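Entry 14. Structure prediction run on the chain below.
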Amino acid sequence: MKIKSKQVRLASLFTVAVLLFTGCSSNSTDTSSDSMGEEFSWTQAEGSEITVLLTAHPFVDSIQPRIADFEAKTGIKVNIETLAEAQATEKLLADLSTKSGIYDVFMSSPLSNWQYATAGWINPLDKYLENSGLTDISNYNSNDFFPGILSANRWDLTPLSGLGKGSLWGLPINSESYLLAYRPSVMKAKGLNVPKTYTELLAMAGELGDGKGSRYGLITRFDKYWDLPYLTFGTMLASYGATLIGTDGKVAVASQSSIDATNDFISILKKASPSGAGAFTWSDAMQGFAGGQYAMSLNEADLFAPTYQDPKQSKITKDIGYAVTPEGPAGRKAGAWIWSLSMNSATKNEIASWLFLQWVTSPEVMIQTHLNGNMNPVRASAWEDPQVAKLVESWGETPGQYKEVVSQMGNVAGILYPPHPELTRALDVWAGAIQKTYFGKGGAKENLLNAQTEISKILGL
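Output returned:
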């Protein structure tokens, strides 16, 4: 696949980071089907009905207006259910574990699919993707996906290894890494520069905002949930040299680098965030910054930019800048997240479900979703689309700033921890230890040592 150098900078550097960090390869499973070689038809499951579970996210708003197009094209009725992430996960787990087949297709991620695939709850997708009777192969063009992003959805079911190998468990709909968003007017008024290091951020944290006039210094997600050490604070942890598994193969969440990162993170929040910071979700972080209450959004998702830039959802559209995340003792590193769509193995509407998956992740539909707030693209053709390029060019304090920051973060972003079916449970324990420290229930070292013992048992290490 040939990609112009500019597109490589804008998106696939992030992808290459995932590819190199995890050792992903583009292996595919050799499968066959009775309908191989048959002529493809979008109406082959006409009259079917499927239920799709989506997590509340900008992607949902971008795809819902297009559902009627799919229904007209295929004759398939689509029922959409949208829930907050925690509620969606709870309902999905209940459905998958009982094999009820209520939800045919659902939003997921490589991380969640490590559990679902191990349990046999989701269908591998190669057998559909490679079947010319089920897939409009030339138009779908799976080679258009950035290789590392697609490969991150592959896993051979080997705990703590095998990412990028084996079966394909999901199809990507967007990619996410992390950046620092800031209010240029606030920084200028306070005589502050955008911090280049966590040391600089710690020093200025108390000056960013005093809480008067509904103005605080910074916001970031901090609820007791696995995404805290996996994504946003995980970006800071990695920049301090902390990781889940040490070079000796043992759990290392209580390493000195992890303790230092935790103490500095909590100090920053104590100085610059409101007392309720310990419960903020990603949605709170996105909406809080867009609402103009904060001078800075720390290490939050780059895909929040469409919300920040939308006058209907944001009060700061003319006063926002983007910067790379600060450097830590180990340099600058970042987590990565890939939202994908997967198929329930208990579905009673297999062909209809696959047609929906194929349609949603097709080049044409992906571009339409990106133009309506679903960032960042997972296909090269989307970054190359003139409308998408024009849309993002204006984002930031100066023209092209957002694109440049995404490019730079692409050099350092990756899936930080190895695949394991119990990883989310282990990371919940880690997140709990960080929160206990924030709320004064023990010191960082004590809490992280206790978490390390518990996580070792969960992961069998």
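The longest strand covers residues 294-301.
Filed with the rest of this week's runs.
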